[in-house]
Every structure is written in structure tokens, then in C-alpha cells.
Amino acid sequence: MTKYFVIASGKGGVGKTTSAINLATALTKIGKSTVLVDGNISTPNVGIHLGAPNVPISLNEALQGKAHISSAAYLHNSGLKVIPMNVSLEKPKIENLEGVLAELDGLVDVVVLDSDGSIGKEAETVLKAAHEVLVVTTPDLPSVSDTLKTIRLSEKHGIKVSGVIVNRVRYDKYEMADENIEAILGKPILVKIPEDMLIRTALHQKQPVVHSSPRAPASKEYIRLAHILLGRHYEDMIIKNAEKKSLYNKVMLALGFNR
Fold first, then answer.
1. CA angle in degrees (0–180, nearest 5) for 161-195-240
2. Could you read off the pLDDT of 120-142 as tens digits, one per residue?
3. Residues sharing a CB contact under 8 Å with residue 205, sequence separation 6 or more, in sequence order
4. Is 236 a residue whose pLDDT tops 90?
5. What whole-number distance in Å separates Cα of residue 130 and Cα of residue 113?
6. Dihedral, CA of residue 117, residue 130, residue 81 and residue 206, to nearest 10
7. 45: Cβ–Cβ under 8 A, 6 or more apart, which residues?
8. Which CATH architecture fits 3-254?
9. What distances in angstroms separate CA 14 from CA 38, 135, 143, 221, one per listed residue?
């Protein structure tokens, strides 16, 4: 059965699209057949982030009934499968979204949907197409307050909100404490994505940071999130291998070898 996750927020600028792109990439990297769908109908950004703002066939055409949604899927050079939405002044038939997305059932393991950064009708339509919602916020009161609206909207339609992605974390005294964020939202923090210059570098390169810099702190957290959503235990293999090497070196030194 195909699992549908929506990445949502209550406002723009919190890193929702970046999170959707990198979560989908992380799921792909750990072996799940995954497709990222740009469900941000009014202001699509996935294609822009990945270097393809306009493509011959996009989600637009699928919503209009001009093409099967699988015809709008493209393979990014990172290995990520993407169904973008072309930037267009023509209003897409958003009411067809749920039926069009259902055409992906059984074709992939996971569908990750990037949604509109609001709580309007378009965002509500995308939320209703999901099995689970992940909300993205930055650790400040205005963002958290707006995120609460998205959680309430999801719950209104009986959609499970799995938890919170706290993005752009600087670990300074001006940020809200984790327990305060969880108390306001009533949902657990799943991961905290640090403010990472390598994310900006990846955006410039039109790449997911999970692909371009897999050892980056942000990349590790997106990979951790992918494991959490699949119910798997995550262990940082880079750290694990370093610990093994350190133990090996200690044993060799104890035996009288330099290395």
C-alpha cells in the first residue's frame, strides 16, 4: 500500500519545501520507492528548487485530465523521482487532486506532498489527500502559532499529524524551548534541523542537501526522520564506523603497534 505524507506549515519561509525535498530524498536513499509531488498549487517551488521550473508535462496536465500522473514524473540526477507543478497563471483543477494522486497507488511505496504554506482551500485539499501530516515550524512563537492552525485543520478532517519538524535551529537563547513548542502544538518534535550553510549551497546547486552533502548535520536529521516514519531504528553509520576505527586503533596500540 502506498503511504501518503504531506509536509505542511502555517506560513511561508519556514523551510517546508526544503524539508519535503530532503525527506523524499532520504526515503529514496534508504531503499523506499518514493515520489515527491509539488502540491503547492498557487506558488509551486519544487521544480524551482531542483532546477526545472517548467517541464513538458506536469501535475497541471494531470489535474486537467490531459495526462496520467505517471507521465508527469521525472528523475532528478540525485535519484529523486519528482512530479512538479509548472508555474502558470492558469488556475489548476485542484478539486481533482485526490483522484489524480490515487493513480499512484501501488506504483511507489511513499508519496511525499509539498503543500501550500497557508491554511486556505488549496492547502486543505492537499491535506485531505494524505494519510499523515508532518508540520514544519521554526522555533519562534509566530511560526509555532501559525503551525497550530494547520494541526487543527488536519484534525478537523481526521488526518493524523505525526509530529513536528523544527527547522532552522540555531540553538541560541532566543529560540523557544522544545517543551514549550510541544506544549503549544500538542505534538512531539520528531527532528530538529540545524541552520546549515550546506543547505544554502545545495539550493544554489539545485540539489537536495541529503544528496550533495550526506554527512551534513541537516542531512543526518532528514535521514533520521525517514527512519522514524518507517518505524526503523536509526544509527549514524559514520559515527558508528568512526567508533569502530577508534576501538581498533586502541587495541592495536595496546598490542604494541603504532596503527
1. 85
2. 888 899 999 999 999 999 999 99
3. 212
4. no
5. 8
6. 10
7. 17, 38, 114
8. 3-Layer(aba) Sandwich (3.40)
9. 17, 10, 8, 16
Query: Where are the alpha helices (H) located in the chain, listed in sequence order?
Result: 16-29, 46-49, 59-63, 97-101, 121-127, 141-156, 178-185, 197-205, 209-212, 217-229, 237-254
Kindly report, residue by residue over 156-168, the tens digit of the pLDDT.
Answer: 999 999 999 999 9
**What band does 256 get if pLDDT is binned at 50, 70 and 90?**
low
Domain boundaries along the sequence of the chain = 3-254
Q: Which three cell numbers stand for residue 248?
A: 581498533
Q: What is the mean pLDDT of the chain?
A: 90
Please give the average per-residue pLDDT across 223-244, as a whole number.
Answer: 72
> Which residues does 32 contact at the CB level (< 8 Å), separation at least 6?
109, 110, 226, 230
